[in-house]
Amino acid sequence: MGLAPHRPSVKRILRESEHLVRLALVAAILVVAFLVIRKAVVPAGFGRYGHYRAPSLDDVRARPISFAGHEACEACHDEQAKVKSQGKHAQVSCEACHGPLAAHAGDPFTNQAVKPDPATLCVRCHEADSAKPKSFPQVASSDHAGGVSCGACHNPHRPAM
Amino acid sequence: MDLNRREMLIGVGKFIILSGSARAALNGGDAQKYNMAEHWWGMTIDVSKCIGCGNCVRACAAENGVPKGYFRTWVERYQVNGGDIEHPQVDSPDGGFNGFPPRHETGAKSFFVPKLCNHCVDSPCVQSCPVGATFDSPDGVVLVDEKYCVGCRYCVMACPYGCRYLHPTKHTADKCTLCYHRITKGLTTACCEACPTGARKLADLKNPADPVHEFLRDNNVQVLKPYMATRAKVYYKDLDGAVR
Question: Which of A113, B85, B145, B236 gives 20 to 30 Å between its CA and that of A103?
Fold first, then answer.
């Protein structure tokens, strides 16, 4: 009672807590070092969608295409598409038999499509095998045509005789 | 500044909402190209339609440059003798790349099963990757970051379906991407494009107009190894119990 409240000077506070200031400085340096190293080591976009590099989605998307898709074929070959649409092979896409033709679709004159060989093409699907579904049309090629090429009787675009 | 607490909070709220809507408006231009949030990819496979021609295997190799002897998709031929579903006879010469040598068995159940990455929702491969190089994309495709993969093979070991391999020249994990470079451009996968019977069909489970919904509703559908709880997204119709 009666005593004036004692207020230490700022100078004295700084002097007495010098060890704490030093500790805070070290902590600040550590935090900055962590942030700098993190920035340098963690690749760009990591963690945007999850625990991975987001730009890798674009890397995967950037791969070139080999199969053009039947819409691209039908844009030019409308006659063949019309014939095919009337037969049993209507749902078979063009490149299922003709192979990947995106290069041909992109530049038809320098990249010519090669006609598939019916001798190997037809049996690939239609050779009889007990594992094939019963409803699928199958033949034992050795006794079906007696050596005559499939194309002699069947048009692959509309196979019914 | 004479801002009280209430005015400041309102101001901050306005700032967040307005900057958010501005960003949404800007992104609107890109959304027409491809919006990951609008898709959830999977595949349907009708076992009763597969004829084992190997078109899918060849198409996949051509589209993705899969090295010889490695497979992102392959076809297995099952034969169950006398109802012994515990011991099916399975063959897959070259993964079915050149089709199958014809077999004429009577009195045995026999069928083809095409296989590929199941693009699981809870993928063991993604969970086992120590560096974050393999991941589930926001549209449900399991992909590999070739630049980040260290080739430790943990994912190859973790996949219960055997769908992964270490690329012999790149020395990174490799697998089916569900033709991510095609499906994000509005095309179907190479295997689905080449399948002559329509046994395999790409499915967008978020698209209400996709026939996958009728497929799942109207058929007996199963995924491979459901007891692994991987939440696989390749749905098989008429899958026999003998299939592993």
Answer: B145
Token pair 């078979």 is found at A92
- Residues of A near B (Cβ–Cβ under 8 Å) read 43, 46, 49-53, 56-57, 59-67, 69-70, 89, 91-93, 95-97, 99-100, 124-125, 127-133, 136, 140
State the DSSP H helix or E strand holding residue B180, giving kind and residue range, or none if neither.
Answer: helix B180-183
Question: What domain count does chain B have?
Answer: 1
What percent of chain B lies above the pLDDT cut of 90? Answer: 83
Per residue in B184-236, pLDDT (tens digit) is: 999 999 999 999 999 999 999 999 999 999 999 999 999 999 999 999 999 99
Contacts of A97 in chain B (CB under 8 A): 196
Q: What is the pTM of this model?
A: 0.85
Asked if the ipTM is above 0.85, the reply is no
For B161-176, what is each residue's pLDDT tens digit?
999 999 999 999 999 9
Residues of A in contact with B64 (CB under 8 A): 63
| CA atoms of A26 and A126, how far apart (whole Å) | 77
- CA A119-A122-A127 angle, 5° bins: 105
- Unique residue bearing structure tokens 């084992």: B52
Please report the number of interchain residue pairs, chain A to chain B, with beta-carbon separation below 8 angstroms.
Answer: 128
Q: For chain A, give the number of residues.
A: 161
Question: CB neighbours of A153 closer than 8 A, spacing ≥ 6?
Answer: A145, A161
- Give the pLDDT of residue A15: 84
Amino acid B16: pLDDT: 58
Which residue segment(s) compose the domain that B68 sits in?
Answer: 40-244
A48: nearest CA partner in chain B = B138
Nearest-CA distance B180 → chain A (Å): 6
